[in-house]
């Protein structure tokens, strides 16, 4: 390994260790077993916290926080830490070391130096002691089983399951995240470099399945808590638990400040699509005022802990008078194409690029409409930057059209200003669809947006109906009150409040409520 890369890895390790130590001060409050025991509503449960990205202080602090509120509710907590044996994981990214351009294998080694079980030994003694579960080593038979599976895929290309788990889905999501751009199986098969990297993710997914089947059999947990539920190793862990009938609580930080999203049995990216709890009830005036105030804050990210808006974006308003010649203006909202890419059963399009080509064809037919493609700002404002810009793809692969305007991710114009300016929105899967409907704009959903199937949007059913669905949506009357009701449900009910600033807040009403939900007690 290059000596400078070794130095970088050492610096990262020390930096992450310092961050984790700082975060651990949260957990140094007085132990409150007696107070906790007085409020326990159910029997003690054995719960495993499946921490798989220990070198990520943000995620690890969330895992440890959840572990502590569950422990103080009287549950038996086991903390599972990756043993650094995986061939690849969600911590690697191809653009992290741009100057050196290491292979995936070398970058994996760099990450493992700053993200391994040593942090468990360094971290837990600082006021936060739990029983740890280390991933077991694979025996010779298990290695042979995995290698045979990889050889079969290498020869035939068949996307078969490994021990009944859809490892290819998680491996592809992991590879797309690693590259920071969309990539299909055909591209993987036809490139030796892509194929080798994909094989590493596939091998890692299989290793996760084998390891976690042994952990579940040996430890017999009632619940496993997992972050995110996508990529490798999080996705295979969730599916392995599902196979063995183990309940899972899958968490992710919410957009709103001091909130966590907890879904059961699957990542929230999927559970939101099929949830039955939203009934579209009318809001009280207090709730209505609350959600309107929050939606206003989302325009500049002031109300959020996760925001991709450009700084001072509200000051950059869309105002192009030369476009007033068009009868209609349609805002096309994209996603970051690598983020949360997983298989949806009812996907109309194979990927976002295919969808954008279909919208381009629609623009060719609707000359009376100006189609404004707003590339997602998170391509350049997110923590993990996109390796390829969707605007570059559109400019390189499609001929220029007068009524097909591309606004790049680097453009600071407010997306909400664009929504106000337009008559209709077409989205793939962005949550901004919720705000668009709440602002009174008809929305055509072409991908798996969380607002789909809620009776508030026109939801595309097949590729052939795009033209007719667009025409229908253009004249649709929008249920603004229903949209505000769903916005409140999403941002104030699905995203649950928690208190994590003061150690004395561990047993606050919000945290007890959150712990009960994670433990399946309510």
Q: Any overview of this molecule?
A:
This protein has 20 helices and 13 strands. It is an alpha/beta fold and 522 residues long. It folds into 2 domains: 3-258 and 498-518, 3-Layer(aba) Sandwich (Rossmann fold), CATH 3.40.50; 285-495, Glycogen Phosphorylase B (Rossmann fold). Strands 3-2-1-4-5-6-13 form a 7-stranded mixed sheet, with helices on both faces.
Secondary structure layout plus pairing:
Blueprint: H1 3-24, H2 33-39, E1 46-51, H3 57-71, E2 76-81, H4 104-114, H5 118-123, E3 131-134, H6 140-156, H7 167-179, H8 185-189, H9 192-219, E4 223-227, H10 234-243, E5 247-253, E6 259-264, H11 268-274, H12 285-298, E7 328-333, H13 352-365, E8 369-374, H14 378-381, H15 390-397, E9 404-407, H16 415-421, E10 424-427, H17 432-438, E11 443-445, E12 458-459, H18 466-474, H19 480-494, E13 495-497, H20 509-518
Parallel strand pairs: 1-2, 1-4, 2-3, 4-5, 7-8, 7-10, 8-9, 10-11, 11-12
Antiparallel strand pairs: 5-6, 6-13
Helix pairs in contact: 1-4, 6-9, 7-9, 9-10, 12-19, 17-19
